Amino acid sequence: MQTKLSAFCDKVIEAGWLAAIIVVPLFFNVYSRRVFEPDKLSLLRSIATLLVVCGLIKAAERPTTGEDVTVRRRLERLFAIPLVLPTALLGLVYLLTTATSIVPRISFWGSYQRLQGTYTMLSYLVVFSVLLSNLRRREQLDRLFTTIILVSMPIALYGLIQHYGRDPLPWGGDVTRRVASNMGNPIFVAAYLIMVVPLT
Q1: What pLDDT shows up at residue 64?
Q2: What are phi and psi of 167, to 5 degrees?
Q3: By 3-state DSSP, what share of the chain in percent is helix, strand and coil, each rounded to 5?
Q4: Quick one: 191 exposed, middle or buried, by C-beta within 10 A (0-12, 13-18, 19+)?
Q5: What is the mean pLDDT of the chain?
Q6: Alpha-carbon gap, residue 153 to 191, rounded angstroms
Q7: Which residues lie closer than 8 Å to 43 by C-beta, 6 or more apart?
Q8: Which residues, other chains included, contact 154 with Cβ-Cβ below 8 Å and sequence gap of 6+?
Q9: Where on the phi/psi map is residue 103: left (φ > 0), alpha (ψ -120 to 50), or beta?
């Protein structure tokens, strides 16, 4: 029997992964010194922290029954899922290399310019893990795919606006030949849209 708090956490978790899919690609702040990556990653880290808190609450709320499975059994079931082992190894490698780094602080938090450190990678892994463990119904999958496709539309549209020279924002570089859209880098826009194309 699921408690009200656990059910609430389920809703917050789903809202959290949808928020990550919506807010992180779309957000940029022209009034910020660094406009794109660090602001996006700060949002992602905050969402991931909320997801971890809700996951811990759900785990604490889980009732213990007589047929409770052993930890070993749970781990066997978990690692039977194809991408779990490589993802866990990736997280472990990040933690190990951060601990043995010449500058562990920067390795963990990331550089001032981009924030791409272990904390950010662990945030990516949290979103992946939460999706893996909580995405159970077809309606959830449909919501996820629909959200991803809908979010890609303004990004692609903004790229077209930039390509045709109608962007009202004064960017430092030429964004008509290589559009930067909401990502700040043509390579990032291309990578994002390439991932969305199969779903579309």
Answers
A1: 58
A2: -70, 125
A3: 65, 0, 35
A4: exposed
A5: 89
A6: 15
A7: 23, 24, 27
A8: 26, 182
A9: beta
pLDDT in tens, 105-161: 999 998 878 888 999 999 999 999 999 888 889 999 999 999 999 999 999 999 999
The pair phi, psi for residue 59, each rounded to 5°, is -65, -40
Encoding tokens for residue 1? 């029997």
The pLDDT of residue 69 is 61
Find where tokens 């790229």 sit. Answer: 159
| Angle ∠(119,93,55) on CA atoms, nearest 5 | 50
Distance CA 121, CA 100 (A): 17
In contact, 152 and 193? CB cutoff 8 Å: yes
Q: Whose structure tokens read 């199969």?
A: 198
